[in-house]
Amino acid sequence: MDVFELKGCLIFYYDAEFGCNLHSSLFLPQRSLNPTTKMVNDDHHFKIISVQRKLSMILGLLLLFSCKKCKETNADELCSIARAFPGSELKINGYYFKESINPSRREIFFFYRNGVMLYGELVTTEELAAKEEKFSDGTYYSMAKDVLSHWGNFKISGSAFSFEKWYPSSNRWVAYVNEGVILNDSTIYINRSYRCDGSESRTEDDTFHFKKFGPKPDSTNQFVP
After folding, report:
1. What is the pLDDT of residues 96-137, one digit of tens each?
2. Is the pLDDT of residue 162 over 60?
3. What's the maximum distance between 2 C-alpha atoms anywhere in the chain?
4. For residue 179, pLDDT beyond 60
5. 158 φ, ψ (degrees, to nearest 5)
6. What is the pLDDT of residues 152-161, one digit of tens each?
7. H or E stretch including 197?
8. N or C: at which end does the chain have fewer Cβ atoms within 10 angstroms?
């Protein structure tokens, strides 16, 4: 008696018997007959699987480009482009932090000679040593390099200072400018924030202090050239 089995595959699902990884509405009958018939069936299966794998690659590329487009269309443009900072008004061989208490923590920012800003996140006092190690060994950069909200730029004009970065909103990433003054070469005071068109202006009262630190994370990223 001939025995028939129906087998199927789902998108990115691996079937141990067939090795397929793409959805197909085609169910392939497998027939337990003589070795010659089995070889014909196996050859047919391999051809189907080859086509499925090619389709899988095409779908993957389409998803990649689709996600990239979503990212670009759901984020504001920054108000300005990054410009090199060759001056000495501000020390940048380390990071700047805003201290807060209850709980005790630091909000960290890195500024680079190429005008790029990297957000170092909000870190508790207990986590600081481990976080700094990640800054130095490249672990933090590996995580942050593809995260839009971690990047921005900064600008210095005399004693005036500002930096821009993206913040999450209800359905998109919104760019804000944080503006203030340089009190000395290791202290920044931020007193205002607003969107690029001047809307949503808010009074701020944040002081950032410098800490010498190195090596800093890499500043190369896809968001702020």
Report:
1. 999 999 889 999 999 999 999 999 999 999 999 999 999 999
2. yes
3. 91
4. yes
5. 65, -120
6. 999 999 999 9
7. none
8. N
Task: Please classify residue 124 by burial: count the beta carbons closer than 10 Å to its beta carbon, then call 0-12 exposed, 13-18 middle and 19+ buried.
Answer: exposed
Task: Check residue 67 and give its pLDDT.
Answer: 39
The neighbour count for residue 182, using CB atoms within 10 Å, is 17
Rounded (10°) CA dihedral 91, 96, 100, 103: -140
Rg of the chain taking only CA atoms, in angstroms: 27
Q: What is the Cα–Cα distance from 91 to 14, expressed in whole angstroms?
A: 54
Q: What single letter denotes the amino acid at residue 120?
A: G
Give how far Cα 134 sits from Cα of 25, 119, 130, 142, Å. Answer: 47, 14, 6, 10
Both tokens of residue 160? 């005036």
DSSP codes joined into one string, 9-59: E-TT---TTT---S-EEEEEEEE---HHHHHHHHHHHHHHHHHHHHHHHHH
The answer to whether 182 touches 161, Cβ cutoff 8 Å, is: yes
* 3 state DSSP class of 143: helix
Asked if 3 contacts 33 with a C-beta cutoff of 8 angstroms, the reply is no
The predicted-structure confidence for 17-63, as pLDDT tens digits, reads as follows 334 343 333 333 444 445 555 554 555 554 554 555 555 555 544 44
Average pLDDT, the chain: 78
